[in-house]
Amino acid sequence: MLTNIAGSTPRIGSTLRLQVANLPMSPFNAAMGFIGFDATNWDGAPLPIDFTPLGFTGCSVWLAPAITNFVPNTNGVALWDVFIPLNVFYLGVDVFFQALVLVPGWNPAGFVFSNAGHGVMGSP
Question: Which of 3, 10, 23, 79 is deepest in the core (most CB within 10 A)?
């Protein structure tokens, strides 16, 4: 499950702290974090997109990924720090987050998508 760390909010010039929890305990079950700025369509396809037909049983993509980060798994929790530049251009911008976790055998694809998160970038 993707959540923000208590008290962490997306503010320019700061680091947003997120976590992906309830992962398998192995560091081999790494996560990929996706950041996007659109949750309505991805390359013309309306979101969310059900990835079940692609082998991701029960999984949906909720955002159009623009940035991808590797997020290491430590004891079943992946801590994800997202630095937001100190630039007024980002004020009021919607930002969306989702993670993909390697879980061989969970479904035919061997990966599971998390829930999605949403924030609006604010001032420091």
Answer: 23
